[in-house]
Amino acid sequence: MGTAPLLDHFWLPFTPNRDFKAEPRLFARAEGVHYFTPEGRKLLDGSSGLFCVALGHGRREIADAVHQQLLALDYTPTFMRAHPKAFELATRVTGFTPPGLDRVFFANSGSEAVETAMKIALAYHRVRGEGQRTMFVSRERAYHGVNMGGVALSGLVKNRESFGAGVPGVVHMRHTHLPENRFTRGMPEKGGELADDLARLGALHGFANIAAVFLEPIAGSTGCLPPPRGYLERVRELCDEHGILLVFDEVITGWGRTGHNFAAQAFGVTPDLITMAKALTNGTQPMGAVAVKRAVHDAIVEQGPRHAPEFFHGYTYSAHPAACAAGLATLALFDAERSFEKVRALAPYFEERVFSLCDLATVADVRCYGLLAGVDVRTKSGQPGLAGYEVQKRLFDRGLHVKATGDSLLLAPAFVFERAQVDEMVTILREVLSAFV
């Protein structure tokens, strides 16, 4: 059966295109914490779009800022030129990042932020006379975007099968998704010793050859895996001991998702670089960024000639004026509405309600931290990902949008959710999961 011609030309990302176009599920508009289909049916947004829309949809303060900026200055390159809002936003970002991470490089997505961080690490070691440091360490079950560097870092097999290993020189620590930690609330007690995988890999490949370790403080796209107690501290200790940069990928966990500015502050471990995107503009404009420790930035910039770029990297749309306007308006709303305080206040109730699903036979595991949770659907077919895919379609039909990765449902409500909306989300989940036999 063919598809309607209107649907033929758009090749959807991360989507079974033939199945989707045979039975499309479309959004036409959004407001607050809801999406609306073209027919006007309302769906609760249980994943903040794609972890982006932390302040809720349709925020006029952000839309007006973007509109005004486009009329005043729609575009300028940031190669040898700039505009005031780029500097203003970089300064505002550093008011949220951990102390010392006060230099900001702008990109257009989380994938580009990760690629940028990889290049910063390589450039840093090269100017310090340690150009042999070209290896990177990541983890199994990690997700670091879809550029070839991110494919190499990522530890999700489907992101690697089609394209090979990505860039060479990436090795992986084991993941921390242990069976004995199933249904653990918050940080698991077991698994901290897995951080010593870094010591094992360093002994095998040579610590002096490793440029950086990339970690999601909470592994996000794989299904919300909070770090075991002591894990991040041990990785930081090993990086310090062996001159390795530590990069936190906070594309999902940044900007209040944990109840703190960044997960680095939630866990009390400060990396050398932080990648970010998504909620930086409340999803209204594509934007990513890397916050960099001043010492790393200065090592690169101060070694370069004054007449030529010190860092041969950038994007046509780096620090796009409209994206900067959206970022400034978003950060202003975070402050004005005390958004991260709201996360901390709602998080215990959210956790309690999500963990109430543990009694369902179709639920294989639940994990939660802040306003981020993963609910694993028990697979019966033996085909990984099929259960999660079917459940997310049924949830859509019942009135709930959630992101699914494999057989994990990812819940990430906007910070403006009320308890009643958490209840509604869990009620729909219970109904659909109970009927999924």
Strand content: 15-25%
Rg computed from alpha carbons, rounded to a whole number of angstroms:
22 Å
Uncertain segments are none
- The residue fraction in helices comes out at 25-40%
Tell me the name of the CATH class of the largest domain. Alpha Beta
Structural class: alpha/beta
Assign the CATH superfamily of the largest domain. Answer: Type I PLP-dependent aspartate aminotransferase-like (Major domain)
How many domains, in number, for the residues? Answer: 2
Largest sheet: 7 strands, mixed
Oligomer classification: single chain
What does it look like?
- The chain is of the alpha/beta class and 437 residues long.
- The protein folds into 2 domains: 5-55 and 338-435, Aspartate Aminotransferase, domain 1, CATH 3.90.1150; 63-336, Type I PLP-dependent aspartate aminotransferase-like (Major domain) (Aspartate Aminotransferase, domain 2), CATH 3.40.640.10.
- The protein has helices at residues 5-8, 17-22, 48-51, 60-72, 84-94, 110-127, 148-153, 158-161, 197-205, 231-242, 263-267, 294-303, 321-336, 339-355, 386-398, 419-435, and strands spanning 29-31, 34-36, 42-45, 103-107, 135-139, 170-173, 210-215, 245-249, 273-276, 288-292, 363-369, 372-377, 400-401, 403-405, 408-411.
- The protein has a 7-stranded mixed β-sheet, with helices on both faces.
- α10 (231-242) links the parallel β7 (210-215) and β8 (245-249).
- α4 (60-72) packs antiparallel against α13 (321-336), α6 packs across α12 and α14 (339-355) packs parallel to α16 (419-435).
- The longest helix is centred in the N-terminal third of the chain and has 18 residues, at 110-127.
- The radius of gyration is 22 Å and the shape is globular.
- The mean pLDDT is 96.
